[in-house]
Amino acid sequence: MKDDSRENRRRARLPRHLPRLALLACLALVVISLGMVLQPGKPQEPQEPPPSERARAAALADALQLKAAGEQLGAAPSDPAIAAPAAAALPAVTRTVSLLTTQARALLPGPVQAAQPAPTTSAPTASAPATVTNLVADLARSGRQRLTDAAAADGGMARLLAAVGTGQLLQSSSLAAAAGIPDPAAGLPDLGPAAAATAGPSCPAAPASAGAPGGSGAGTGADGNAGLPGALAALIRTELETVYDYQVALTRLDGAAAKTAAEDLARHEALVAGAESLSRAHCAPIPPREAGYALDPAFLASPGPGLAALETAALPAYGDLVAFSDGDTRRWAITGLVAAARRAAFWGATTDAVPGLAADPATFPTLPSG
C-alpha cells in the first residue's frame, strides 16, 4: 500500500512540473540554435565577373598602362633615362595621353559595378621600354583587342569597347605619322558589305517606311525608333544622304581629293546596299529614298570640311547598330565604325577619344588618384 501511495503522489506532482520542463526544453533549443547561427560557416567564393565586365576591366587596365607610357614619353626631355621622342612627335604624344585619359574615365566601373574596387591610376610597369614606336604598336594592339571584345560583349558595353578600340587605332595611326614610323594599324581586314539577303517567309509584310519615331530613351536607335530596326533605318538614312553629298562634292573637287571622294562614294553606295540587305535579313522596314537633300552653301564652296562633318555624323549611327545587333551584323557595324572614323580623319575631322559614343566626356567620372 505504501508503494502505491508514493507512485500516486509522483503522478499527482508530474502535471505541476510539465510547464517547467517545457520551458527548459525551449531554452535548450534556443541555445543550440544560437550556437548554430554564431558558428562561422564556410565563406562563399566570389563569383567570377561576367564576360562584358572582364572585357571592360581589361580595356581599363590597358588604357591606364598606355597612358602611363605616354606620360613617361612626355616627361622625357627632363628625364635622361627615357629616350626622348622626336620634337615633332611630342604634341601627338600629348594628344595620346589626353585621349587615353578620357577613355580610362569612360571605362571606369559604373553604378552597376560599384561593388568592384576602382583601380588607381598607377598602371603596371610595361615590359618594353617607353618609346614612341612601342607606344604606337601597343595602341594598335589594344585597339584590335577592344574591337574583338566588342563583337561578343553586351550591347552597351559593345558600343563603348568599339568606340575605345576605334579611337586607339586612329590615334596609333596619327602618332605613327607624327613620328615618321610605319603605321601598325594600317591595312586591317575589312569585313566588306553584308552579303545579299532577303526577308524569309516568316517576315511580316514591311511597311513603306521605318515607322513613327519613338522616345529618345534607352533601347532606341539614332532616329528614335526602337532597337535594331531603328538603328538600321537611321544608318540607311545617314548613308543615303552621304551618297548624295559625295555625288555633289565630286563635281567640285579635282586631283587627289576627287580620286579619294570617288572611292569613298563607291564605299558608301556599298554600305547602303549592305544596310538594306541586313534590314531584309532582320525583317526590318527599309526607309524610302529621298529625291535630294539641302546643302549648305559652305559645303558647295569647300566640300572637304563638309565631308568630314558627314563622316563624323555617321559615327553615332554605327555605334547604335553595334549596340543593338550581334553576330555578323555587329561585326559589319564595327568595321563600318572604324572605316567612317578613318574617312572623317582623312577629310580633316578631329579624332574623338570615343568615336561613335554619343556622350559628353565632361560627364565621365574622374580617375582616382594613386
Distance between the termini: 93 Å
Helix proportion: 55-70%
CATH class categorisation of one domain: Mainly Alpha
Q: What is the number of beta strands?
A: 0
CATH architecture of one domain: Up-down Bundle
CATH overall fold name of one domain = Ferritin
Low-confidence stretches: 111-126, 191-199, 206-219, 221-225
- What's the order of the H and E elements? HHHHHHHHHH
Report on the biggest sheet.
Answer: none
Q: Roughly what is the average pLDDT, rounded to an integer?
A: 81
Radius of gyration: 32 Å
Layout of strands and helices, then pairs:
Layout: H1 2-38, H2 51-74, H3 90-107, H4 132-150, H5 155-179, H6 227-250, H7 255-281, H8 297-301, H9 303-324, H10 327-346
Q: Could you give a quick summary of the protein structure above?
A:
By secondary structure, this protein is mainly α.
Label this structure with key terms.
60% helix; 10 helices; Ferritin; 370 residues; mainly alpha; 0% strand
Task: Provide structural commentary.
The protein has 370 residues and is mainly α. Helices cover 60% and strands 0% of the residues. It has helices at residues 2-38, 51-74, 90-107, 132-150, 155-179, 227-250, 255-281, 297-301, 303-324, 327-346.
